[in-house]
Amino acid sequence: MRIVRLLSCWACAALVATGCGRAGETPGAPATGATAAVPRHVLLITIDTLRADRVGAYGYTKARTPHLDALAAAGLTATRAYATAPVTLPSHASILSGRYPPAHGARHNGVAMGEGVPTLATTFKAAGFATGAFVSAFPLDRRFGLAAGFDAYGDRWARGPDGRPADERAGQLTVDEALAWRRSTGDARTFLWVHLFEPHAPYGDAASGRPLSDRYDDEIAEADRQVGRLLDGLGAARAETLIVVTADHGEAFGEHGEIGHSLFVYDTTLQVPLILAGPRAARGLLPDPVSLVDIAPTVLAATGVAAPAPLDGEVLRQDRGVLPQDDPPRQLYAETSAPFEDFGWSPLRSVRAGTSKYILAPTPEFYDLAADAGETTNLAAARPADAARLKAAVATFTAGRAPAPAGATTPEARRRLQALGYLGGAGPTAGQPLADPKDRRVLAARLAEVTSGELTGAALEAALERILADDPGNPQAALRLGYARVARGDCRGAAPHFRAAIAAAMPTADAHLGLAACLTTERRLPEALRVLDQAAAVEPGNPVVLANQGLLRSDGGTPAAAVPFFERALALDPDLHQARFGLAIAFARTGDRVSAAREATTLLSRLPAGAPQRPEVERLLGALR
Asked: From CA 220, how far away is CA 215, in angstroms rounded?
């Protein structure tokens, strides 16, 4: 029997004090290879959409992950670690809070974590640590509740050609910002979380013709390179830093008919890498099932900081699983609300215990993972007693655990999540029974293929047309087909699809904006303006809609009437450069050259030195002088 533990005796004593772990556990021998010093710093790295089986330390022979592999060799590798949800926000909320989604409340992207839920950041900050987080994608934007407790929360997004903020950024930029913050903290103890988005779809350049799998590996290699930069940037402090690297979920490439993630709770998208290295981390393998809710209690115990109660996670120990045979195996929970929120299908809930796994669905599923790791043979009918036992366990994780809600998803948030491939379809239909996602996997795979970025041009249009043939009322497919046709200059073919999306009462103004743009190209300005006014009713605070309302009024001969629209857009978003340029033009058209010059000068001061818009703004200023 192995008695090597992840944590030293001191940390196990902290475990008893905080009430984490199993009843009756006693401190054991110090961890092999672990230092006695308490870590002064914690570095948490989460790599989005990273499958465990694509990392060298997990046996992938084609891997280009030297920094992850070196960490694994020097620390502890959990060989069977599982996410609590195959969705970015719920999984990260579990990592930071040590709680399953029903207890922290962020059960889907765009659904903010419940108010007042303690996290690693709030706990470390209360203990006197400097706390910083730097994220690379919109699902983790501060509006969704994860920023609480962080002194700095880096979620700034660049602007696209349409003036809207991007929905992701390169890991290199995120790491640059994280390292600058780390250097600014002086002698303080620190908790730093860095999120990298590279392995998430789209994978590299789909038009290159290179196999998807190779491009996915390229993205992982880039994430690994940024991990190396982070570790190098720690300098001498690395010896005092507990490092945790994991992923929020995996990725499916056709397994179970799924493309991408979020629809199912099979291990394809739940199993993730989990590596711990540094002070108080053992060296070796942790072979038994663990959950990402275990990260928070483990990190707090290692640093001697009392954990807030209650937590769903346990302090990770390397001897887990060598308990007496009559000790029941630990139960781990996972769920996905994406089928319901995105498509109006049934949500899925799952519990694993030892080598058994149950999925609560309209057609329930039970798998013997020891004999069927790929979850291909459903034994629910053959082993009804075992299935019923784990079905009952699902309720223990879900009943009466909802925290205070933090507000519904806004239309603008839904649009940005849709751009990343989430919230892809119609919502639930009142009065209709909820479909089993297994029975809709073909349609879901077609939608995922569209949102993955793998299809462009004629192939993208053909895929969208097939979706609409099978599901004529799908507003997201209609919207995307409209924009695909606009991209090749076919506004006449796009307009009916924009109108269909509008008729379906989508909660965003994107279809209105597309239709208004098409009407404008045909010089049907009054009709375009009416469509934009309808868009403003759908999204009253959308600065892009306001700016376009101003542009049409200014170009239509009423620049004075346009000015308030531009000013309201800029009050909401001071960096919407197209709105500021439109405001300067509107002032110039009214004869107010002083105000026009002021806005043009302000715009120049905000534009980057190499911005392609600068010459046009400079020409306007020259004409005003």
From this structure: 9
